[in-house]
Amino acid sequence: MKALVTGITGFAGSHLAELLLSRNIEVYGTVRPRSPLDNITPETAKNVRMIECELRDNNAVRSTISGVRPDYIFHLAAQSFVPTSWNSPADTLENNIIGQLNIFEAMRDAKVDAAIQLACSSEEYGLVHEDELPIRETNPLRPLSPYAVSKVAQDLMGYQYFKSYGLRAFRTRAFNHTGPRRGEIFVTSSFAKQIAMIEKGKQDPVIKVGNLDARRDFTDVRDTVRAYADVVISGEPGDVYNIATNSTVKIKDLLDMLLGMSEKEIDVRIDPARLRPSDVPVLLGDYSKLNKKIGWAPSIPFEKTIRDLLDYWRERA
Questions:
Q1: With a threshold of 0.70, does the pTM exceed it?
Q2: Into how many domains does the chain fold?
Q3: 251: containing domain
């Protein structure tokens, strides 16, 4: 069996590649010329076939799909940082929407009947009222950022192509996921890296933070990619599934947990540059639909996830 992973050099993509290889699946991955390869271990690099492909280039995508003819496609490539979408809304929309459209049309053109997993996002739910918690897949979508809007478009495009052309799209709305290799611009990694730098004496003992009141549902990335890999085998084509833990952590409590893992005395300081024009106050997901359909449940305790992330940055500080 062959799998094509877009965004394979990214945070989730690199973990997914390792999982697929462990299942004896032949793995191909799309990369761009400027893609950093830091997340790809030497062992993974030896066993994955990298293909240079800009997803916004229709011809490049068609060549890749027709050349590989994968059994599974995991579409993870995206502009995935919410604050960046405020600064570059047009680029975010084009990158996320047109890139996926090119994949769909290339599959139709080459008559590739692959099962395709679409990495959608809990950010699509946006403004959620307390009486709507925990969030189920039937909850209204009220996106609050250009990134979230782009993910709504990807999500609904998957449904439309399933209905219109029978494309076997599996839509997953992952809530926040973290762990080793998380990019330093994301909140959990930002905190962990700053602590690691402070411990090494490379940063003053002050952590700069944004909104600490938000509550998020964090899944370990290794559990998240397991859901990605399993849903294309046991899920229902055209359907949508939350990937979550049914519990939330306040960002302040997450920070306190990380600070408690360090012996350094560290001050916390609000940085206005880290605050968003609008923020989603709470994201709490209900994963019961995914559990009932494919038996998935989170297995890695949050404290282990955070400790592994901190150790990851300690090794690099």
A1: yes
A2: 2
A3: 181-216+247-281+300-316
Residue 276's pLDDT is: 66
Angle of CA points 281, 211, 181, to nearest 5° = 95
What is the rounded CA–CA span in Å between residue 199 and residue 137? 42
**Does some domain include residue 225?**
yes
Q: Classify residue 27: in a domain, yes or no.
A: yes
Alpha-carbon gap, residue 35 to 232, rounded angstroms: 26
Both tokens of 286, joined, read 């209900």
CB distance 2 to 48 below 8 Å:
no
| 53 and 202, same domain (yes or no) | no
Mean pLDDT of the chain, nearest integer: 95
Tokens of 251: 């960002």
Q: Which two tokens stand for residue 163?
A: 């209905």
Give domain status of residue 126, yes or no. Answer: yes
Instruction: Look up residue 136 and give its two tokens.
Output: 């189920």
How far apart CA 273 and CA 290 sit, in angstroms, is 37
Q: Using the CB atoms, write b or e for 238-267: b if 16+ within 10 Å.
A: bbbbbbbbbebbebeebbebbeeebeeebe
d(CA 167, CA 172): 15
Which of the 8 DSSP states describes residue 11? Answer: H
Per-residue pLDDT, 171: 98
Domain CATH number, residue 60: 3.40.50.720
List CB contacts of 266: < 8 A, sequence separation 6 or more. Answer: 195, 198, 205, 206, 207, 259
Do 297 and 291 meet the contact criterion of CB atoms below 8 Å apart? yes
| pLDDT band of 280, cuts 50, 70, 90 | confident
For residue 278, what pLDDT band results from cuts at 50, 70 and 90? low
Over range 70-80, report the average pLDDT: 95
Same domain? 148 vs 257: no
Instruction: Note whether 185 and 47 are same-domain residues.
Output: no
Band (pLDDT 50/70/90 cuts) for residue 270 is confident
Helix ranges (DSSP H) in 88-220 = 89-93, 99-110, 146-165, 187-199
Whether the pLDDT of residue 66 is over 70: the answer is yes
